[in-house]
Automatic annotation (TrEMBL):
Protein name: ABC transporter permease
Domain of life: Bacteria
Primary location: membrane
TM regions (residue ranges): 21-41, 287-308, 333-356, 376-401, 422-445, 686-710, 738-757, 772-795
Chain ranges of the MacB-like periplasmic core domain: 20-236, 432-651
Amino acid sequence: MIKNWLKIAFINYRKNWLSTMINILGLSVGLCVFLLIFIHWQDEKSYEDWIPNKENIYLVENGNSSFGTMVVSSYPELTVSKEKFSEIQDFTIANSWNGYKVRLMYGNKSAYTTNARATDSYFDFFPMEKIAGSFKNAISDDSKIAISEETAKVLFGDEYKDCIGKTLKLDDSENKSYVVTAVYKIPTGNTVFRPGFIMRHPNIDKQNLEWTNYSYVGYFKIKPGTDIAALEKKLSEQQSQQEKISSEKWGEKYDEKNSAKVYLTPISKMKLDAKSEGIDKGDKKSIMILLGLSALILLLSGINLINLKTAQASQRAKEVGVRKVVGSSKSKLILQFLLETFIICFTAYILAFAMVELLLPSYNKFLGKGIKLNDINLFIYSGLLLIVFSFISGLIPALYLSNFKPINTLKGNFSRSRNGVWLRNSILTLQLIISSFFIICSLIIHSQVKFMMNKDLGFKGDQIVNIQFNKTDWENDYNYKKYIRLKNEISKIQGVEDITGSINSIGLGMANASLVKNALDTTKTVENVVTGAIDYNYFRFYKMKFVSGRDMDLRYASDTISGTVANESFIKKMGWNKDQALGKKVFPGWEQKKKYKIIGVLKDFHINGVDKPVEPMLFFNYDRNWAKNNMQNLQIKLSGDDINGTLEQIKEFWLTKAEPGYPINYEFVDKQFAKTFEKFQKQQTLFTILNIVVLVIALLGLFALSSLLIEQKLKDVAIKKTLGADEKMIIWDLTKRFLLICVIAVFISIPFGYYAMNEWLKDFSYRIDMPVWPYVLSMISLLLLTFIVVSFKAYRATKINLVKHLKYE
């Protein structure tokens, strides 16, 4: 029986080779897109799978309605909570910043690598594979250090396993020595914990640390079975009480409505589900959107299969009638048609995996990942998907075909079934709804990204290079002296037009922020004000504009001592206009008892990306208080005569005189800021690709369906031609039904597209108004494509041989 079914299946595949090829191609492309997005999602979910008992380890995050949520905690919050709440077994600190590297030295060898500042319980939480030494008390005091296998190989060569007890030096101001206590292997799986070396955090032994000093990335090990929501509530109440005490200490009124919130995020879900920016956090929302859209593409491929199978009903109807007459049951017919569908789906499944393997290197490069097809779960999940997909997409045409009545099929009037026509039209409408939805969304996303790219940023960053210092010292005046020396020496290089510096670098986000009070009414405050310590020429350097007042002038001592420039966002939050703000005095958070006088109001400029609101900022000259030692970069404007030549001279100076032994860490400011767009540019690129895939699959399906339906009407075409109908009339008669379905589909898709794009645009502080033209263009383009695809086959139908189709009439 199975052998007979297979023979019939392959006979029909060969007979309808065009629709078979379109089905296989559409399904393989749809499945390929779905698998690529799915493996990206699975890869992001696999972070920290290597950690034993990960279900009991939680990241501690803090926040309130005013400043949002932070990944950092205070030290008292962590250590006191462990003693106070029995649910918490232990805590650790792991300040691990993967983007920051320092130089570790042994003799004449050095390793430039990332590091983690932690507590001694680090290895209890994150038990990396031990290569040498002992993890017990590995970083119990400030003189000990644990290093990774890669770092050990760089410093000690082949004898790296014998490095325990040897002394290393960190290239910092203290030039302190550290004894190697352990060598560990960085996990091979996905993890955010990849430090080149681990040291004890320098501040955890200090007494009377503030509860509001949020500087530590903390983790709790919690007893199994603990009610996490209840524990979060207790932690939040404790932190709120401490913040209230701190506010009263500074003479401030605590806002009960803005109370602290503490969140516990499972470490296994930290990568995607952290409430804050997390540690190297993934973009879960974008992944889920893309996964949903790829599922729609897969659905579209299934719709093609269902539509083409039901459209072929006229060719299989007599076969069904004969088989029923000779005793075949309905269940056997359904199984036969399900088998035929499974063969097509399985072929597409194999082809899809071949396409994934072919595209994976380019996909990895696009994502900046190293995903491999070595996860057994991927094949298990995709295999289950194949079975479910084959069953669902095959069941509808199988039921439709198996319900044919033998008496009708053998008499030849089966093709006039209204149920069949309604089913095909409904499925085609759904197909075009999905196509229209993708066109609308793609056009709106393109418009938003273009709007962001063309928005006035408030500064001119072309031909400006930002060089970050690799070696810093916050204890002495090293940074201040270093900045002055490097500024003077690099300014002598031919092609350098100007140099400035600042604590915050454009495109790299804000480094410092604090609360600022109105000096006349201290109840009026602005939180999260960016601390804008700058060189005196900063505003001229970036060609920034003032809306009122003036720039700082070194000729006036008051400007350098207590003068400040506010941006528009700050004065708006303080309740002033641009003229009222001039002369006003404020207490900035960095100097609670010293008044600063506003001498100018600066036009808002973007520092973190145009998807976020411009932060309130206060600018002052860096050469005062603590700020002078936080100048960690040079911003150099190059002339346009020989940019590459000038840059090479700067590189040579930097590597030989400025910071010998370190790589130069530089970026053009305009490109540095452009990185804030990367996420949205990638979304635009992916959505455009998905849109093209959807249109190709839909149009291929439409072409195959129209071919089958027009083939069934060739006798009607021959009669009309015989009666004198011209080609235009026949083409219009054959295409108008498809165009009507297209119009209906676009109108149905509009509310779905509007809702989806309105939700997507909510993430942007600066967004376009919802345009009308994408909806109009979607209808026009889809109507045009439908007409071209269907009319091509309709035109071919007008060239038929009349005698061939009418000789038996």
